[in-house]
Specification:
Layout (H helix, E strand, L loop, with lengths): L1 E6 L3 H12 L5 E3 L12 E3 L2 E3 L11 H12 L3 E5 L4 E6 L4 H8 L3 E3 L4 E7 L2 E6 L2 E10 L6 H5 L4 H5 L4 E12 L7 E3 L5 E6 L12 E7 L1 H6 L5 H16 L6 E16 L5 E4 L4 E4 L8 H26 L3
Parallel strand pairs: 1-2, 1-10, 2-7, 10-17
Antiparallel strand pairs: 3-4, 5-6, 8-9, 9-10, 11-14, 11-15, 12-13, 13-14, 16-17
Helix pairs in contact: 1-8
Amino acid sequence: MTPIIIIGSGIAGLACARRLVEVGLRPIIFDKGHNIGGRVATKHAHGLQFDHGAQYVNARGEAFAAVLGGLVNAGFATSWSDKTRRLGIVGTPGMSALAKGLSAGLDIRQGSQVTKITFDNNSWILKINEKDYQTTRLVITIPAPQVPALIGIDHPLVTKIGTVNFAPCLTLMIAVQGKAPFIIYNNPENPLSLVVQNSSKSGRSSGGLSTWVAHAGVAMSKNHLAKKGSEIVDLMLPLLCAELGISLGQVTQATAHRWLYGCVTTPLGKPFLRNKHSNLYLGGDWCIGSNIEAAWTSGTALANDIIYSNSEDRKGSGST
């Protein structure tokens, strides 16, 4: 019996597990992918690297600011600035380092596909890679649209997440010969809503080239989501070249990525959901926003509820 199982190794799942471990609990995180961090991601291609998801992070709350400060002090992150202002905190040598720092000491099992979940006799039974695991508390931190496939369309919590909406995001990554004209460009109204000089961040390997990441706006991403990777490159590359003032001949490498759940457009409006009758928790950035701090806040709040519930259970049993 595993007391707490977390499905999803994005920032919410990591934050939840990190907080639980701080009080002596031992959760296990299962994730079907091979990399932790979700959209806090770094892609390696032909000797270069690109932060193809979240580009940087800032803290609004003191608690999350302390977490970022700890990651900076431990060498997993550093400050990122242009010539006039501080832009935020970035992972080093890539954004995925933020997740690596948060995951230290956690029991994370990647490549773990959950194929069946059942609730019986006050316990959850999960079939993962054809092996059964049993737990008294189940935490799911995957994108809201993926939840019904795990717990069933008729589960009471599925109705509560029905208002949550995501938008996809198409991403283009390129390497360029020549001068880099700027550090960051951000305009949600443009077809390319965000353009970032990836090579301006500390620790990024660029081989003497300037490397760039561009995110398409919501409208473009929705309209062209079905395109293949090469078609996305053909669509976005001329637009990016125009923004950079360069010719196609200066581009030495170009690749694309599709984020099906790229950003949260309508959040839930509360940090997490819990079904008290079955000790099932749902959390993620989709609960309260569309950034790294939202994911961390959701996971931490969820963990604190579990810690409180554990304390109440011990009081009820007469334990001290």
